[in-house]
Amino acid sequence: MKWIKDEEFIRGNIPMTKFNIRTLSIAYLSLKEGDRFLDIGAGTGSISIEAALQGAKVWAVEREKEGVDLIHQNSQKFNTDITIIEGHAPKDLPNMKFNKCFIGGSGGNLKDIFQYLDNNLEDGGILCGNFITLKNLNQFSILLKDHNYREIETQLIQSSYMDHIGLLRGNNPIFIIKGVKSHD
């Protein structure tokens, strides 16, 4: 399987989940052929595209018009079939069941998104989120416990890359947190 490098994506002013965080997040989601995958706060579509290339049926939700346009462009570039929803989570999310969900951006609606997932994420479904701020990480962690998710794992990833003259440039530290929806 080929993973897509960051520079291959069409970019704009919308945040993109970087390569090392993207591959780890997809690994935590255990994405595979036939999964029904919801990407909330899809940004440029990097997670959605990689998920589609793994064989998942993908719904990408993004509220920013530029992001929606970038998801369309990237989806065409990498020849993926993604259902793109321009709107806000959870009010514009489809009333259907998913077995995997990624939250890259919540627009401050984490509590309401969890209410949506109570009905729309299947029992045993995997939820994974990426967070930059401790506040959002903490809220997500509390919501996972309050909604009886199990197998909760949290990781802080700090990475740097070497630029063209040999200096290391740091990326934002990112928290990756994942849980499995309980069967009760």
Automatic annotation (TrEMBL):
One Gene Ontology molecular-function label: protein methyltransferase activity
Pathway(s) per entry: Cofactor biosynthesis; adenosylcobalamin biosynthesis
Pfam families documented for this protein: Methyltransf_31
Membrane spanning stretches: none
UniProt xrefs under Gene3D superfamilies: Vaccinia Virus protein VP39
UniProt domain Methyltransferase: residue ranges: 32-128
Any one Gene Ontology BP term: cobalamin biosynthetic process
SUPFAM superfamilies: S-adenosyl-L-methionine-dependent methyltransferases (SSF53335)
InterPro entries named in the record: Cbl_synth_MTase_CbiT, Cobalamin_biosynth_MTase, Methyltranfer_dom, SAM-dependent_MTases_sf
Cross-referenced PANTHER family: COBALT-PRECORRIN-6B C(15)-METHYLTRANSFERASE (DECARBOXYLATING), COBALT-PRECORRIN-7 C(5)-METHYLTRANSFERASE
Protein name (Swiss-Prot/TrEMBL): Precorrin-6Y C5,15-methyltransferase (Decarboxylating) subunit CbiT
Organism, as annotated: Wansuia hejianensis
Lineage: Bacteria, Bacillati, Bacillota, Clostridia, Lachnospirales
